[in-house]
Amino acid sequence: MSDLTEHWTPLSVALLVLSILGLVGTWTFNVVAVVQMVDFLGDLVSSGPAVSSITVDLLVVAVAGSVFILVEGRRQGMRRPWLYVALSAITAFAFTFPLFLAMRERKLTARARASA
């Protein structure tokens, strides 16, 4: 089996699909915001308490997830886990976090198969 297709479990495929949905979903709205010349950051904090609540909620989750990526990536011996955090700044955490989880699952599967 080639390295690209090896160790893909149903869970890692599901996480990869979520990652792609996260990228497409967020960037669809990002493109709309750019085309309509919307003040993207201003809307996040000034569109009312509900939007501000969701913004803070997701920001805290993204920071906690970023810490998890860095710590768990290093613990699992994954190469360049910081790249997932950096990519989230230019893509979306909804893309990079499930992508990291998919790659982590592949790493765990490979380790389990190697020890069996």
UniProtKB/TrEMBL annotation:
Superkingdom per UniProt: Bacteria
Ranges that cross the membrane: 12-38, 50-71, 83-103
Keyword presence, Transmembrane: yes
Alphabetical list of Pfam families matching this protein: DUF2834
UniProt xrefs under InterPro entries: DUF2834
Alphabetically ordered keywords of this record: Membrane, Transmembrane, Transmembrane helix
Protein name, UniProt field: DUF2834 domain-containing protein
Lineage: Bacteria, Bacillati, Actinomycetota, Actinomycetes, Micrococcales
